[in-house]
Amino acid sequence: MRLYRKFFTGLALAATLSACGSGAGDADGKSGSKTITIGVLTPLNGPAASSFGHKTVDAAKARIELANASHEIPGVTLKLVSEDEGVSPQTSLAALQRLSEQDHADIVLAAGAFFFGSYRYAVQKNIPVVGDCIDGPECGDSKNPNIFAAFGSSDNNFPNYTGIPEFFKQQGGTKYCGIGYNSPSTVSNGKAMAGSVKASGMPVPYTNFAFDPGQANFSSIALSIKNAGCDVVGTQMQVGDSLSLFTALKNAGVTLKATFVQGGYGQELFESAESTTAAQGIDMAAGYAPASLKTPGVTRMMNALKTYAHWTKPYPSASHQWGWFTADTAVTGLKAAAAAKDTSAKGFISALRKVTSDDHGGLTCPVNYSTFGDTQQQFPGNCTYMAQVKGKEFVSLTGKDAVRIKAIDGTKNG
């Protein structure tokens, strides 16, 4: 799930979980002998807040409260704090400093867009961090062993892969067109998908990764796609722009067999009649099991969001995933550290690095935290569910099975 943004730069956190203060040594006399403070670093204001915000904090809180209520970590009670990451790498650093110096956070959930501006400090101080890792390449670098990607450490070479092209063919697709912004990660993602489709034998007559957000002429692009004869379109854009493109394609009389839209799965899509209408029939990638499948893992998450975040709508918000999955990974690491009887920063990092198969309670394909660069961009645990929008539902196109992604050795698009 990588959508790098072009921003950059790092200062202070506690070096151990077993230190003083609220860190990890407070006796509470009840459910546990230690209190460990987890800090959420996420944009609460500014343009990026619409993709994260308070719902991200709410979801992290729900996962942490679930862990406390079910005594998942023996002898430990979790406490949640949060800081506004703001609008830039510089504000991310300032917020990280506040989490350290004022909030005394022991583990950081980098559930935002600008952590590449502060990760160097986290590495310098050996701060345990669990990130969404959509902002930069830091999670895939073995020089940063204290930084974990909740969905798997991404391969920064952006290789070609199998899985998605086969899905397109199963849907009846014959030609692929790829559209995306002119930024390093979206270009690399777009080229990787186009290269993957081409490697499968499907023609790719048109791609366009030459425009900035808000600058596309979708009517002109739709005409180019029509002239190219594509019946499969993949986008590397914000959901609103993707929907604008598909509306332009419909207006141009283009009939599509399959689509690929990243980041569209979420209740927000149905909050306006306009977006609901524009999304009809569009295939959305979902990195975790769609709520409509009602699997045990889905039920557990939705019940926790209802109980602790007061979320009662049919689907999670797209913003919820960042808080839920980073917090869930932190809980996994703390359970392993507690089992090894060492919940210091060093113990947490060591224990989580030994976890080789974490499916987030049955919500994703297994993630391996012991290695670096083994996960393909955008695909948690090298898998993605594909769900089509029908009415106000996301209907899984592959039942309860995810599309499995496998890298093609020797290829590179980064």
UniProtKB/TrEMBL annotation:
Kindly give the Pfam families that the UniProt entry links to this protein: Peripla_BP_6 (PF13458)
Question: Which UniProt key words apply to this protein?
Answer: Signal
Q: Which InterPro entries match?
A: BCAA_transport, Leu-bd, Peripla_BP_I
Q: Where is the Leucine-binding protein domain?
A: 35-391
Q: What is this protein called?
A: ABC transporter substrate-binding protein
Ribonucleoprotein among keywords: no
Q: Which domain of life is it from?
A: Bacteria
Q: Which family does it belong to?
A: Belongs to the leucine-binding protein family.
Signal peptide annotation: 1-24
